[in-house]
Specification:
This protein has 290 residues and is mainly alpha-helical. 75% of the residues lie in helices and 1% in strands. The chain is globular and about 70 Å long.
Length: 290
């Protein structure tokens, strides 16, 4: 009897402590999310604000100023030749994707469906290329392209990017193809479909989330590539990541114009992500056919 009375008295106190603990946990979770959001988006917000600041307000922390588009006009003016660098980046990124995606799909399908000698060694070799630091490959590529007369050309940048994006896309796409039941292909084959028809009409639609995911990552990798572009280009084939370092003047770094160039630089990535966001999210969450 006494024990029951004591337990009854202690119960509310225990319940209060539990409620307080849950509230504290919720508060900490909210604060953690806010800190992450601030950490991720504050630099983006600062760049966006700075891009529209006049030169006099660039080096101040004021968020109240008369917005101007002069920075964007200066970026595309004759002084920086930013339009040419922009076209170089688009050419390199798009051509790299046009080669990477078809090659990686065919290679992934072959590795997933066919038995071949040395398959595991080949897969390990593909994976091993992702662990080699880029700085290790810079000098060999530089010497090779110098001997071939390809220095300062978009062809050289496309080649080095393909060496990085194709292995990555093969591994990523193969994981999605492996999860597609082979019975679907066998049923299509019984109905008279050829291997290419099965690949085009059956496999590609089912693997599309994975293909879109690989496309997004390969585009981001190519669009943001800096090290090879810095070493292998000088003037004609300079891309945007390298061109962003050109915004210096007599007074030092032209932060307002660099911020405007940064906004223009990330714009294709944002547009691309908005166009394929549904398929990209599906590919990131599902990982294949359920």
């Amino acid at each position: 009897m006494i024990a029951n009375i004591i337990a009854h008295i202690k119960a509310p106190s225990h319940e209060k402590r539990r409620t307080s603990s849950l509230k504290l946990t919720s508060i900490l979770e909210v604060l953690s999310v806010l800190l992450v959001i601030i950490f991720l988006f504050l630099p983006i917000v600062w760049i966006f604000i700075t891009a529209f600041k006049p030169e006099a307000a660039t080096y101040t922390t004021s968020i109240i100023f008369k917005a101007t588009l002069d920075n964007f006009k200066a970026v595309f003016g004759s002084g920086f030749n930013f339009g040419k660098y922009y076209s170089n980046s688009l050419i390199v990124a798009l051509v790299t994707l046009l080669i990477t995606i078809p090659v990686s799909i065919l290679a992934s399908y072959s590795l997933s469906r066919f038995q071949m000698k040395g398959k595991q060694i080949f897969m390990f070799a593909i994976l091993a290329t992702q662990f080699i630091p880029l700085i290790v490959n810079v000098i060999p590529f530089f010497l090779m392209f110098r001997d071939w007369g390809l220095l300062d050309t978009t062809i050289a940048l496309i080649i080095v990017n393909l060496g990085h994006t194709i292995p990555y896309a093969i591994w990523l796409t193969k994981g999605f193809i492996d999860r597609i039941p082979i019975d679907i292909e066998e049923a299509a084959s019984i109905d008279g479909a050829s291997r290419l028809q099965i690949l085009w009409h059956v496999l590609l639609p089912l693997a599309m989330p994975g293909i879109i995911t690989a496309t997004v990552f390969c585009f981001v990798i190519t669009w943001n590539e800096f090290m090879f572009a810095l070493v292998l280009t000088q003037q004609e084939a300079v891309t945007l990541p390298v061109a962003l370092s050109f915004f210096t003047g007599e007074k030092g770094v032209l932060w307002n114009q660099m911020a405007a160039a940064g906004i223009v630089f990330v714009l294709p990535t944002v547009i691309f992500m908005l166009l394929v966001r549904k398929q990209f999210i599906l590919g990131m969450t599902s990982g294949g056919v359920k």
